[in-house]
Amino acid sequence: MHPDLGFARELQELDTRLAELAREISYLPKHVAEIESRLDSHRKKLEADHAILTANQKERRRLEDDTKVWDQKITKLRDQMTEAKTNEVYWAFQHEIDFAQKEIRKIEDRILDFMGEAETLEKNVKAAEAALQQEASEVAAEKRVAEQRTAADRIELAEAQTRRSAAAGALAPQTLGIYERVRPTRGGVAVAAARDGRCTACNVVLRLAYYQLVRAGEDVRTCEACGRILYYVPPEEPPKEDSLKEVEACKTPAADPLPSPS
Fold it and tell me: Could you tell me the domains of the chain?
């Protein structure tokens, strides 16, 4: 096999890996930013829930203060009733007391509503706090893994770039020129296997005589359709078990024995 074919294949493998590493190095910071943004949105949601719970508690305290004011008013009215000189004045005080008591009942009903809401809010807040703490721990762990992976990728990237330079330097200038010209226009793939008479990259059938030249591997040959550098790969042999089954299937079944004369 022509030595350039081996170096071209190595160069292709390195470029494929370099592209994968570059994508991963680029992706990991975005991934970390996404999970941090998700965590931040959950944190803000928890802060909003806290604010709603605080507002609920504040409103309950205000209503409880209102009931105290009404209670004080009732006490004052009852004291004044004892000094009433006429029935009209007496019943006027009683009417005001009744009105105050109705207002207290309305306020107490509202307090009960707020208490019911607060119970649900407190449960939700506690659950959200626990979930946020767990998520924050998971995000921190995932960030550490991403940072370690990025550091390892950068080391591998530098090593692969050094090996690429060596592989590219080992290629003949003409072969390297073909490789560098084809790779950007063919999705980063400039080297392809030739198997069963086809270019496996573009799936075009090669001319028989040309395929024999590719198979010989004495020169660098390119696909006449896509321009990729070709290297020969022998056809895959079927598994031995399958071959045995085919042999067994081809055997002629034994003839039925003739009936004996009566």
Answer: 3-170 (1.10.287.1490), 175-232 (no CATH)
